[in-house]
Amino acid sequence: MFQTPFLRPERSARQVFEWAIRQAIFADKIGFSEYWIGEHATLNWEGIPSPELVIAAAALQTSRIKFGPLAHLLPYHHPATLAIQTAWLSQILEGRYMLGVATGAYPTDAALRGISDLSKNHPMMLEAIDIMERVWKGEPFQFEGTYWDAGFPEADGKKKLRDVRPWGGSMQMAMTGLSAPSPSISFAGQHGFIPASVYAGNDFLRSHFQTYREKMEEAGRPSDRLMHRVVRDVIVAETDEEARKMAIDGGIGLAWDEYIRPTYERFGVLKHLVHDPSMDLTKVDAEYLAEHVWIVGSVETVRQKMDAWIDDLGGPFGTLLIYSHDYIDNPEPWEHSMQLLVNEVVPKLATSAEVEAA
Asked: Measured between alpha carbons, how far is 97 from 34 in angstroms, rounded to an integer?
């Protein structure tokens, strides 16, 4: 699950927090493998500024599922502080923690930190990663950078410093891609990070798969498509009609109309979602998406759509991340959809045997 979250702006902070934790606990209970949480300071539909609080609150109420921010926006944190914070969370979760990082793409989040030139965000991210990786070694250093100064102190012989290394000694990291070609996916491949792609059509995804493979090979690393995460909307119900109604008239449809559509237009993603190039983009509504873009339907319909989708991609990838949406007022059908996906759809996919063998 990717808990962006897409929750209505009128939801209180407590409602957003409680929903995120409820979803984490339920996802763990029914067998989801990963739970990622977005970070945004000013966006009214994506109201979690501190994903680490959700992770911490869910850590002791879950036992199997892995957590990660997707992503911490590195230009907006002092990297040494964030390195200590994330390493501690990885120690608390004892291996159930992954760290997603990003540059930050929204001007209002940047303006809050006094940044008006977002072109500096990419070099800031690179410098931040360098500092964080130095801190995680737990060895003395002093660094004077373009954007930050940092260091790790010498141990006093009379008083040892605590272990600040991530659980297992290293941090598994991830980056998301929302464009094609994607500089973030390139960076992930160069550094061996997990690549996470927001779905915007199969050509879009194939571009990400290709970019990641090329950059991994250039870096001398084996290219494993099972590393890839893909974020997509999925709704499963007892019948096609129930699933369509839940999508079109529910949280997904509302989020699309009021928030996601303008966002996708801004980032140039919308055009990649339509199957017909002659399609008038102003007519891409929830009904069109439920038929052509979202994976919506009964167990058998969703299974067929997913098999066809994966077949067209040329085979399976690593992990499907479903968006979480605003079903706070009536969570049972939404949670039933999650259960059907885990228990009824995935085990019957033609590609399941291929993934297990791989």
From this structure: 9
Question: What is the structure's pLDDT at 358?
Answer: 39
Q: What is the residue whose two structure tokens read 């962006």? A: 4
pTM of the model: 0.95
**SS3 at position 143:** strand
User: Would you say 276 and 283 are in contact if contact means Cβ atoms under 8 Å apart?
Assistant: no
Neighbours of 129 (CB within 10 A): 18
Question: How does pLDDT run across 35-58, given as a tens digit for each residue?
Answer: 999 999 999 999 999 999 999 999
Using DSSP's 3-state secondary structure scheme, residue 198 falls into strand
CB atoms within 10 A of CB 328: 17
Peptide bond into 181 cis (omega under 30): yes
Say if CB 202 and CB 181 are below 8 A apart.
no
Q: What is the DSSP letter of 225?
A: G
Residue the block writes with tokens 């929830």: 286
- As beta bridge partners, residue 175 has 195
SS3 157: coil
Mind giving me the DSSP string for 85-117?
HHHHHHHHHTT-B-EEEE----HHHHHHTT---
> Can you read off the two tokens belonging to residue 273?
């979602």
- pLDDT per residue over 225-258, tens digit each? 899 999 999 999 999 999 999 999 999 999 999 9
Could you tell me if 65 and 34 are in contact, meaning their C-beta atoms sit under 8 angstroms apart? yes
Greatest alpha-carbon pair distance for the chain in Å reads 73
Q: Enter the DSSP assignment of 139.
A: -
